[in-house]
Write a structure and sequence with these properties.
Blueprint lengths: L6 E10 L2 E11 L4 E5 L6 H9 L6 E6 L2 E2 L10 E4 L11 H5 L1 H5 L4 H14 L15 H14 L4 E5 L7 H18 L2 E6 L2 H7 L2 E6 L2 E6 L1 H6 L4 H6 L4 E10 L2 E4 L8 E4 L8 E7 L5 E4 L11 E14 L1 E8 L2 E7 L8 E6 L5 E4 L19 H7 L1
Parallel strand pairs: 3-8, 3-9, 6-7, 7-8
Antiparallel strand pairs: 1-2, 1-4, 4-5, 9-10, 11-12, 11-14, 12-13, 14-20, 15-19, 16-17, 16-19, 17-18
Helix pairs in contact: 4-5
InterPro entries: AAA+_ATPase (IPR003593), ABC_SmlMolc_Importer (IPR050093), ABC_transporter-like_ATP-bd (IPR003439), ABC_transporter-like_CS (IPR017871), P-loop_NTPase (IPR027417)
Keywords: ATP-binding, Nucleotide-binding, Transport
Pfam families: ABC_tran (PF00005)
């Protein structure tokens, strides 16, 4: 066992009854690493966490901790602690009793329990609250008690099942920072389940994105955000704007042909495996630039330019958000100033924030759509590619 393969999952599959939720998960987590399992509801992230914890028995595969096979061991024999979404505090117990509950089950001496509970209260900012019941605490304090109970038993691995989802936004921002700082200070290995992209980005060393029980992509927050491996990952990481374009690769570039709502351009391939035909282009609202349709300034090399009309404008804070009709698509673009409703505009997307993915199996959005210069429908181009 090395530090890099402290927790190993090999071919782990699991489900409930005839329904398979996890499908051949291979995942290695280093000692002291903070990994976030990210995905939408039903993707399998909570089932994966519960399989690691021992509450779900895999139908295939193995789970090892420091080269020790724990696949068939009960939860209390795995050296792990789980913080539940609901905190699961005993309402009739005090803060001190809740924190010390696991130590009591392990039959530690009373003096040792008192000492350890005191350390946890001090570490988590709960000093002076030991005699209170959970009902007398704020949401953030209850979350800290649940965390203290998990850490008191000195686990090798800390498992977090969306522990911040019940907190309001202001408290959530503070507590997630506290958990991250605490994890780094203790050097503990942590696996955190969340559906919140920003939460995963700011807390984790590595993000693992799940889709339909499989790993869609994993990597550092920066890598997953800036280099999504698929259209699904790009959309999940905020690149929800989507348009379809036609083009073909040339040495070092992908040549996008002019279409009904886009100008021709050449985008650097940058290692992307793109084939001749239709591609799905994705980008984030804040990554694009909105300019008047009659703007005379030159477009930066490699930038995609789309033409459309503003349909609505809103102000979510900081920037104005515009819903722009581009052909059959509705595109969201942020700008520092508000454009008028119905105004003709151009959307410019630099190549480094434009994500392109080949769509050989995609169904046409409009089977009669043709591109100027090519004069071919999508269905014909796809058959010839």
């Amino acid at each position: 066992m090395t530090k890099e393969n402290f927790l190993q999952l090999s071919g782990v599959s699991a489900g409930y009854g005839a329904s398979r939720v996890l499908d051949g998960i291979d995942l290695t987590i280093a000692k002291g690493e903070f990994v976030a399992l990210l995905g939408s509801s039903g993707c399998g992230k909570t089932t994966l966490l519960r399989a690691i914890a021992g509450f779900v028995a895999p139908s295939a595969g193995s789970i090892k901790v420091a080269d020790r096979d724990v696949t068939g061991l009960p939860p209390d024999k795995r050296g792990m602690a789980l913080v539940f979404q609901s905190y699961a505090l005993w309402p009739h117990m005090t803060v001190a009793q809740n924190i010390g509950y696991g130590l009591k089950l392990q039959r530690h001496p009373r003096a040792e329990i008192t000492r350890r509970v005191g350390e946890m209260e001090k570490l988590l900012g709960l000093s002076g609250l030991g005699d209170r019941k959970p009902v007398q605490l704020s949401g953030g304090q209850r979350q800290r008690v649940a965390l203290g109970r998990a850490l008191a038993i000195d686990p090798e691995i800390l498992l977090l099942d969306e522990p911040l989802s019940n907190l309001d936004v202001r408290i959530r921002l503070t507590v997630r920072h506290e958990i991250r700082v605490l994890q780094k200070r203790l050097g503990i290995t942590a696996v955190h389940v969340t559906h919140d992209r920003e939460e995963a980005m700011v807390m984790a060393d590595r993000i693992v994105i799940l889709d339909s029980g499989r790993i869609a992509q994993q990597g550092t927050p920066e890598a997953v955000y800036n280099r999504p491996a698929s259209a699904f990952v790009a959309a999940f990481m905020g690149a929800e704007n989507r348009v379809e374009l036609w083009g073909q690769p040339s040495p070092g570039r992908f040549e996008i042909e002019a279409g009904p709502a886009n100008a021709a351009c050449a985008v650097p391939l940058d290692g992307r495996a793109l084939s001749r035909g239709f591609v799905e282009a994705r980008f984030r609202a804040e990554a694009a630039q909105l300019v008047p349709a009659n703007a005379a300034d030159s477009v930066a090399a490699g930038s995609l330019e789309l033409s459309g009309h503003v349909e609505s404008v809103s102000y979510p804070g900081g920037l104005w958000r515009h819903a722009v009709r581009v052909g059959d698509d509705m595109i969201l673009v942020d700008a520092h100033k508000a454009f008028g409703q119905g105004e003709a505009v151009k959307i410019r997307i630099p190549s480094d924030v434009l994500f392109l993915f080949s769509t050989p199996e995609a169904q046409p959005l409009a089977s009669t759509r043709s591109w100027p210069g090519g004069a071919k429908s999508r269905s014909l181009e796809t058959s010839e590619a």
